[in-house]
Amino acid sequence: MGNEQGTIAGQRQEADQNAASPSTNAQKPEGMRADIMKGGMLLYGRQIISIGLKMIGVLLISRVLGPELYGAYTAAFGVYSYVLALGQAGLGIFLLRHEGALTEGHIGTAYTLLAAMAVLLVVGIELLLTPLSHYMNVAGFTEVMQVLILAIPFQLLAIPVTAQLERALNYRAVAFIEVIGQVAYYVVAVALVLGGAGPIGLAFSWIVQQVVSALLAHLLGHRWPKFRFDRSVAGDMLSYSIAFSAANWIWQARMLVNPLVVGPALGAYAVGIVGMTVGIMEMLGVIKTITWRLSVAVLAKFQDDRARICKAITEGMQIQILAIGTLMLGFSWFGQWIIPLVFGARWLPILELYPFVALSYLTNAPFNMHSATLSVLRRNGRLALFHILHIVLFAGAAAIAVPLFGIKGYGYAELVALPAYLLAHYFVIEMVGAPNYELAILWWSGTAIGLFWQELGLWAIGVPFLALLAPPSLAVLKGYFSGLRGRFLPVQET
Question: Which terminus of the chain is less hemmed in, N or C, by CB atoms within 10 Å?
Fold first, then answer.
């Protein structure tokens, strides 16, 4: 379902960054690179399978639930996801990045800390659930949340053994666990929703996924939880992981805007529409996640060469916009037929919000290169400042615009937050110099105009094509085509 992608994205992104550049394993460089490339292909294959499963889930589940019932699940899952991200305390990142072998003291202390966090989160949510439900004004939120929180212990306790699998570059096992877990989710979810269980059925299916994933992780990792506690180890873990993950926690606060701002103002129906729109963008933006991983792996190799980093940012921005913009435009132009066919006519209000959210994701895509650069260069404080500015602008604008303009107010808030990317640009200039934005701006502008064709008129559909036909664009596209042709087509000998 749509909201799950936004959920796990932040959590998986950190893990994937470490998968791209593991800090342990005393392999030779050639062997390590081969393992990473092989593992990367497995992770990418997992992502494609994941998208296919989600599309099937959307097709079957969204048509039955409709926006209002789906909104109850979206609101609960948004709160659950953010609380869970905080509850992990970045311990998975510590286990992945720790230099040297992990001792039983590290693993046992991690299990103990995560178990304690699980208890605190479950009890805390139960205590706050009644006032939170009154504030949110989303029918069904309480019932769904009461079921969802039962998944927290399983999800948290799977972190240590999953980190060990990734440290060992056992991406085959990681991909297998995630795919089987998602299959279990959709098999149960479709059966329960078609049987009339509603959004509570989705919450129960999420528990099933986490139980299956946790069991598989421990079976394949040949380990079961053993609880120990070493105060010095715990202090090292928390001081490192919290500092490293703080910027990501700030960014993930985006997922709270829908339930905590849209919900109280407009109710469950609007929360469902916003949640599904964001979910569609996450599915279309799968390429963004893949290229982010590649960028971290590439940038890490020459982090001391500022000129090469700057060139990589320039090329990465172009590829991001070209790949993601194409998919976004396709849905924008054909969405009026896709939505009734796939989701049902009740979901057509998505089209009112779509161009605004798409423009936000289109802008975020090239600036993923900036975020990756700041992360690789360990400038987490600067990354956190950029995220804070973005969240303040986005949440503040949403709090004002949603009550005034309805669902479209969420889209207006996305536009208000766009200037925050100038801060990311400034930080990158400060660190490595100025990338070349010429083509990125040209393609971004053409795509942006094409996204708003319904507001601007049919002429806007032609603008992205004109941007691609400009002489600088043709030169770069010719280079891309030549590179692909040389890689995938045999060379003819004469």
Answer: C
